[in-house]
Amino acid sequence: MRLKVLGLNHKTAPIEIREKFSIGKEALRRGLENLDSYDGLNEAVILTTCNRSEIYAVTEDDCEASLHQFLNDLIGGSIDEKFLYEHDDAACTEHLFKVAAGLDSLVLGEGQILSQVKEAYTTAKSADATSTILNTLFNRAIAAGKRVRTETKIAYNSVSVSSAAVELANKKLGGLEGRSALIFGAGKMAQLTAQHLLSHGLKKIFVANHHLSRAEEMANKIGGVAVAWEEALTSAAHVDIIITSTGAPHYVIKTWQTQQLMTRREGRGIFFIDIAVPRDVDPEVGKIKGVTLYNIDDLESVVEKNLQARQREAVLAKKIIAEDVAALTERFKYLNFQPLMANLSERAEKMRRREVRKILGKLPDMTDDERKILEQMTRRIVRKLLRMPMMKLNASAGTDEENFYTQAVKALFTDEVKSFAQN
Q: Computed over its alpha carbons, how large is the radius of gyration of the chain?
């Protein structure tokens, strides 16, 4: 038995390759349901995100071709081997643990990947594509991911401009719950910022864009309110935060407009965050009484400090992962033998019951107590007969004698049991 992972991610393949060979939900479901049609693939979990497509599998020895064919069938074509990576056994375990902990993510410590790992495992398990080894691996990996997030601060502090902007506003304003914001722009960065704001309990978001239809589209997505570009600052008389993220080549918020806005606000302060390049807000706006202004440079310095903090926490996270991987690797030495031992025990138990039935048929006058004694005696005999081979198997786990004892048990017991049971 071998534990393997085969896949590609943001480190090995550019976005155009990842997009082309991403695994759709329907292909994923079909693949798991038809796993039995691939020689030597016993278990599988498929993890697919925007930054990675991976197959974790339990295989028979020398089944690399089946695993690669499985991946090609999932993505509907063949992929250049230079974009792929493959890890076996302990290296596979370590890789998954790092993935679950956010140590292998594009953004160090990002939290979404842990829920994606859970979903991938749940999907595979519901399709009956997992058994003892992958069930153990994924449960331990998920637990390790949780442990890293509990015992370190790797997921603390924002390392993207959009999340850093919201974190800054939350800190400076003493919380965002119940507050409102106006966002200039309706692009990806603006939408990400809006989502971060809403996750902090913001009450209402107004969206302004040169094209009102785009503002309306974004507002519908986030449950906000679209406002006409020309009327945006007028509607800002009662908001707490203004965030700008447009592609304009010039300032879209000027000093004189802000002075008029502050007059209408009657002394109420306002918080500006300009995350556009080039800048949307005239720097002179920051000198107006009651205005607090941060731009992209301010945010990037926050992001850099936060990233350094996460990197320090990653050192602690790697120690946790190393401990958990070592413990699981030790356990897997014995799990590899479980199918063989379970098969041997199950067949021996069938033989025992069969012989007991024969004896009971010849001794109809046996009492219930005598039958219990017979059952106990035959069970003890079976256990004693199997005890030594089981001990030898366990003792050889992870040693040079592992393969010898595995083959010996198969030759001495399994075939014999099969032929006996068929008689």
A: 31
Q: Under a CB-based contact definition with an 8 Å cutoff, are residues 109 and 155 in contact?
A: yes
- Residue extents of the structural domains in the chain: 2-151+309-334, 161-294, 340-422
3-state secondary structure of 186: coil
Identify residue 231 by its one-letter amino acid code. E
Q: Where are the beta strands (DSSP E) in 50-190?
A: 52-59, 85-88, 180-184
Residue 160 CA to residue 155 CA, distance in Å, equals 12
- Give the CA distances from residue 132 to residues 125, 128, 289, in Å, rounded to whole numbers and listed in that order: 11, 11, 66
* The two structure tokens encoding residue 299: 């945010």
Contact by Cβ (8 Å): 294, 273: yes
| pTM exceeds cut of 0.70 | no
**Is residue 92 annotated as a catalytic residue, yes or no?**
no
Task: Compute the distance between CA of residue 159 and CA of residue 305 in angstroms, rounded to an integer.
Answer: 9
Give CA–CA dist 274/286, Å, rounded.
Answer: 11
Q: Which of 15, 50, 327, 342 is catalytic?
A: 50
CATH of 2-151+309-334, one of 3.30.2350.10, 3.30.1490.20, 3.90.1170.20, 3.30.460.30: 3.30.460.30
Give 7-37 pLDDT, tens digit per residue: 999 899 887 888 777 788 888 999 999 998 8
Report the topology of domain 161-294. Answer: Rossmann fold (3.40.50)
